[in-house]
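sorry for the late reply, my laptop died twice this morning and i had to redo everyting from scratch. anyway the thing you sent over, i finally got around to it. pasting the sequence first so we're on the same page, its 315 residues, then the predicted structure underneath. double check i copied it right bc i was rushing
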Amino acid sequence: MIEARGLTKRYGDTLAVDDLTFAVQPGRVTGFLGPNGAGKSTTMRIVLGLDHPTAGEVLIAGKHYRELERPLHTVGALLDAKWVHPNRSARSHLRWMARANKLPYKRVDEVLELVGLASVAGKRAGGFSLGMAQRLGIAGALLGDPEVLLFDEPVNGLDPEGILWIRQFMQRLASEGRTVFVSSHLLSEMALTATDLLVIGRGRLISQTSTQDFVEQASEATVRVRSRELDKLGALMTERGWATRPDGADVLVVSGKTTDEVGELAGEAQIVLHELATQRGSLEEAFIQMTGHDVEFRSEIAELVGAPVAQGATP
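ok and here's the structure:
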């Protein structure tokens, strides 16, 4: 478990982390989200004792990082996949880590097998692709078989097969009762991977909730209805003051109503429906809606993307 209490970090006049309090629970994958400059990397560095907070504290399994006698047995992390010495082989790099943490060399071969690098264990890390470097970084994080794992952008450079692998791998780690804390800009992937979300902006906590609740809270549910008698159905909805918009030739999206209400209206008018379903916005849309005011560099594209979401519409 990771617990932060009033975590604050200043760099001169810059407030990078602003009174953050949160808890990352074991047995779940928690996605750590925020716009660029939100303070995610700084927070992760503080958790690992690489930066000292200006105020507040963060505990891993009830202790400050500096108090852990054998840190790699408690927490494993991947913050920078390219920090490995380029002339070392994957096996040599992990053996160096194992020796420094009094771990048996047999564990090195175990984690290389786990991450799919056993066949290239003797090759220089400097020749690895970014995806292979990510796998090596994950192997290093797993070396001590820790109960807490932190990953910063772990799917960078991975192909679709690799992305699926890391998603299932993180979920498996969480199912074993471990605490899995992962930062990523790939929101579509976080929607599939994370059970919970911790969202920050400009160093402040915006939301900590389940992924499902985050999307539901930040985006309005709409009803998608498809029919060959859409003109007739649309006219009836307009008469009643319902908010609708077309989505293709035979589809209407209805805001502020339920499938029951739409179905009953169609039934009363004896209109045949070919599709009737509730739909919600994506995690990307919910994220833009919730963090729009905390983006450090806001583009015109972001304004356009965010505008319909702010009105409760689903593109």
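Residues 297-315 have pLDDT under 50 and may be disordered.
thats about all i looked at so far, will dig more tmrw
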